[in-house]
Specification:
alpha+beta, CBS-domain, Alpha-Beta Plaits, four-stranded antiparallel β-sheet, three-stranded mixed β-sheet, 8 helices
Amino acid sequence: MFVESLAYRGARVEASLPLTEVLAQLKEHPALMVTEGSTIVGGVSRGELFRLFADYWLNDGSPSRDILPNPVKQYAREVPVVSHGTPVEEAIDLLVAGAPLVIVKDRRNQPYGLISWVEVNQYLREITGINDQDSVRFSLALLDIPGQLARVAEVVGRAGANITALTVSDPKVLNWVHVVLRVDRSHAEIARMALHRAGIDIIGENGPRG
């Protein structure tokens, strides 16, 4: 998946806009791209501006007098910029490293959209199937050896159950990994029986039993 598929396109403000108006837009999205025409100036985030206001209050300043009338350009910070075709994982790495947002440019080098933790959270919910209300989740504990995920997929697939998501995390407990399997709700019993027959232990389940 590439950044253009994840980027949010409705969070852009002109550099000359006063912070008073910018705050209204930050109620809708926690980060904004700041531009002058088609030139990228930087980005602002709700959290950073609130910390700025807190500093003024703590020092007996008045944000409404000293900050809010000013153009947002004064408070925009340099943020990472990536181009169309960049893998989503690279944008996530930049956020993990501390960037408040990542700006995405299109193939003509024009501002396209931005990625913040809001978009990443939605992305993770989709790839793990959390948003899928028509599926049942099985939690599995498997030995951390090659071929285990393929084995789970083969066992469930051969039984005729439709897999909607298959994710893995490493709990750092001995040689075990935690696998989350999601299947269509109507196929839950088929998958459950197939896993048991294959000797794969189900350590947790989320969804009604058929």
